[in-house]
Amino acid sequence: MKKKNYLLMLAVFTITLLTFSTSCKKKGCMDKYADNYNSKAEKDDNSCSYSKGSLLVKAVDANNSILSGYEIWVYDNETDFDNGTNPISTQTSDSKGEAIFTNLEPGNYWADCEFTDTNNDPAFAEGSGNVSKGMQTTITIKP
Q1: Parallel, antiparallel, or unpaired for β 27-28 and 43-44?
Q2: Which end of the chain is more exposed for a tag (fewer CB within 10 A), N or C?
C-alpha cells in the first residue's frame, strides 16, 4: 500500500513538474514582420497580427529565363511607374530572379526591371499586383 501511494505521489509530482517547466517559456508572436512581434518570446503562440503585407517579385525574360542580379523597382502609384520616377523601394534580384519587398501598406503596386535581352538590347520586365493585409503577394514580371 505504501508503495502504491509513493508511486502515485511520484507520478503527480512528475506531471506537475513537467507542466510548470514547459509553461514557463515566454509565449508570444515570434515573427519579426508582425505588428506584435515579441523579441523575448521563446514559444510562438500563433497570436501574430499584421496590418501590412509583402510583395514577392519574380523577374523573367521573354523565354521565362530567370533574371538574376538585376535591379527591381517597386512603385506605389501608376503615374510614377509609367514615368519611371520615385520608386518606393529597389532591390537586386537573387539567384532565383526574386526580390521580396516587405512592410507594404495594403494596395496596388507596380514593379519593373531593366535588363539586356538576347540581342544585347535594353529591355524591360514589368507587372503589377495587389498587396493585402497580412499576406504575401507574388507577381511575375516579364516583357
Answers
A1: parallel
A2: N
Residue 75 one-letter amino acid: Y
CA–CA gap between residue 31 and residue 82 (Å, rounded): 35
Contact predicate 106/132, CB 8 Å:
yes
Q: How far apart are CA 118 and CA 39, in angstroms?
A: 48
Which burial class, exposed, middle or buried, applies to 56 when counting CB atoms under 10 A from its CB (0-12, 13-18, 19+)? middle
Burial of 111 (0-12, 13-18, 19+ CB in 10 A): buried
- Residues forming a β-bridge with 56: 100, 138
Q: How far is CA 55 from CA 34, 68, 99, in A?
A: 15, 17, 8
For domain 53-141, give the fold.
Immunoglobulin-like (2.60.40)
Residues 69-96: tens digit of each pLDDT:
999 999 999 999 999 999 999 999 999 9
Contact residues for 58 (Cβ-Cβ < 8 A; gap 6+): 96, 97, 98, 138, 139, 140, 141
d(CA 38, CA 43): 10
